[in-house]
Design goal:
This protein is mainly beta. It has 3 helices and 22 strands. Helix content is about 5%, strand content about 45%. The strands form 6 sheets. The protein has a 4-stranded antiparallel β-sheet, with no helix packed on it. Strands 5-6-7-8 form a 4-stranded antiparallel β-sheet. Belongs to the glycosyl hydrolase 43 family.
């Protein structure tokens, strides 16, 4: 989702117990001098964590923020941690080359290992490169591009000259790699509400070199979710937003999707389920996981085996928030917020203990 301007670099103190680790392979925290940051000091949107078992290191990718990296260029920066608590200062791992078609963005970076390389998916746009009209709105180029590196920490270089993976006449964002049980790659992405009105979640099949290999297919529309609230625009139009897809195969083989939109209390992290078990769906909406201005989450396995989710909260001047999750087979549930790792942006209410959704049903929640 959109990264807003930074008003200030947030400050926080360090010093709390690292996450649990297995006796066989303990996770050792870096010294404070090497990893001086905690999540409450790291302004970030759309966080993506790769848990690299070979190096026993967590790599967190996000849009480059000059206030954090000291570099004003458009691109992707990366933090590293051994314990999810103490993080290194950011390293710029990708910068958009001069002369590229894009002029802004660098949203929602994802990094995936594929065919012996590491691939970075990230979204750019150019408001001056207009595509036509959608109601009262002028549409323009926006899409997820691909970059490749030999190492997880880069440097990443553009693939195919930086042309978006999806056709340039579609305003798309937040592209996410999904590999189906047959080993076939797909790009799952949000087709922007700016162009569609009712934003869609779509998928396009990919070749082995991660180029589009077929026509896009609509998986669902934001307005399909009973909890989704339309956003009234200055022109009077009411639109529905799709953001931040990530696919997850549960322990029983159920195909789930994390995604975000807007609910009664602002930005929301939610989940959907494929009834067929395949990318084609049909997809049913399972409700929200985290509310209170929280969203664009992703899942990873900690080195001690726990399923974790990171998302950003709040939307403005966002911080990374970590949750311990549970795979229930047919859905995901929130176990708890890992406040020992990321602090608290909001108080924890007893009324949500044991619930899989912060649904606000109880006063004060």
């Amino acid at each position: 989702m959109r990264t807003l301007a930074i008003a200030a670099v947030l400050l926080a103190s360090t010093g709390a117990a690292p996450v649990r680790s297995t006796p066989e392979a303990p996770v050792v925290a870096r010294p404070a001098a090497e990893a001086p940051l905690v999540l409450t000091a790291m302004h970030l949107h759309d966080p993506w964590i790769v848990a690299d078992r070979a190096s026993r290191t967590y790599y967190l990718f996000t849009r480059n923020e000059a206030a954090m990296s000291g570099d004003p260029r458009l691109g992707t920066m990366m933090y590293a941690s051994r314990d999810l608590k103490h993080w290194t200062r950011p390293k710029l791992v990708f910068t958009l080359p001069a002369g590229s078609w894009a002029k802004a963005g660098s949203w929602a970076p994802e990094v995936h290992a594929w065919k012996g390389k590491y691939y970075l998916f990230t979204t750019f746009h150019d408001p001056a490169a207009t595509l036509g009209r959608s109601g009262k709105r002028t549409t323009y180029r926006r899409g997820t591009v691909l970059a490749v590196a030999d190492r997880i920490d880069g440097p990443y270089r553009l693939v195919r000259g930086g042309e978006p993976i999806v056709a340039r006449d579609r305003m798309t964002l937040d592209g996410s790699l999904y590999v189906d049980p047959k080993g076939k790659p797909w790009l799952v992405y949000a087709h922007e509400w700016w162009q569609t009105g009712n934003g869609t979640m779509e998928a396009v099949p990919l070749t082995d070199d991660l180029a589009a290999a077929g026509a896009p297919r609509v998986l669902f529309r934001a307005g399909d979710a009973p909890w989704a609230v339309g956003q009234v625009q200055p022109d009077g139009d009411t639109v529905y937003v799709t953001d931040g897809p990530e696919l997850y195969r549960s322990k029983t083989g159920t195909l789930l999707m994390l995604w975000s939109s807007y609910g009664r209390k602002g930005y929301v992290e939610a989940q959907a389920r494929s009834r067929s078990g395949g990318i084609e769906g049909p997809w049913e909406q399972l409700g929200t996981l985290v509310e209170r201005d929280s969203g664009h989450g992703m899942l990873f396995r900690a080195f001690d085996g726990r399923l974790m989710m990171i998302l950003h909260r709040p939307f403005n001047y966002a911080l990374g928030k970590l949750y311990e999750m549970r795979d229930d087979g047919d859905r995901l549930s929130v176990v708890r917020e890992a406040t020992e790792l990321d602090g608290e942006a909001y108080p924890t209410h007893p009324c949500v203990a044991g619930h899989s959704s912060f649904d606000g049903a109880t006063p004060g929640c």
